[in-house]
Predict the structure.
Amino acid sequence: MMNGLLLKRIAVGLGMLAAMAAGGCADDGDGASSANGGTAGEPSGGGGAPPSAPFDGCSKGELEPDREGRLELAGPGVDAGTGALKPGSYLVSTTYLAMKPEMAPTMTELSGPVMESLFTMKGLVAVAATSSSSCAAVRTLTVWESELDMYAFVGSPAHVKAMGQASSISRGTSNVISWEGSEREATWEEAAKRLGSEVGGDI
């Protein structure tokens, strides 16, 4: 399978794809997350318990309840009648990108070309993408015919350009993993479980 550095690079491009496909992560108009009822870094209320950090409770291993976007897989490997991924053996990949909310415009700008190149890649079977406003996080789920097909996407010009922005866009908890499995293992639930058990690899 792919080495850690390559997997980190995949995370950036696919995380940007998620934001584009899901319409981006929402903020309160001035670049600060509106999670927890207040702007980032400010208390959400009066006395009592100390205010929590803006993204307390957000975890790559737990699916966010406010996820929006394309939650169902779509692509050439999805049966048009049932909406289900066709039976087979695949390389499945998932990404989780915890974004600095103020970097949403930069990510959106880079996401368009990444998405366009993704849908022209040989071997892409299906893709889904989602974002969470409360966690300023984006997720993707992609299905490939082979590892070599994923390698080709990693080396595409749009992706190479996007991955150079990793450190400025991520707030430090962004990860990608891939595994070989059948159509039954290409789900958001499986993706979250695997991300949650992953140690290290964050950017």
Observations:
- The chain has six helices and five strands.
- The helical segments are 4-22, 104-118, 147-154, 157-163, 166-169, 188-197.
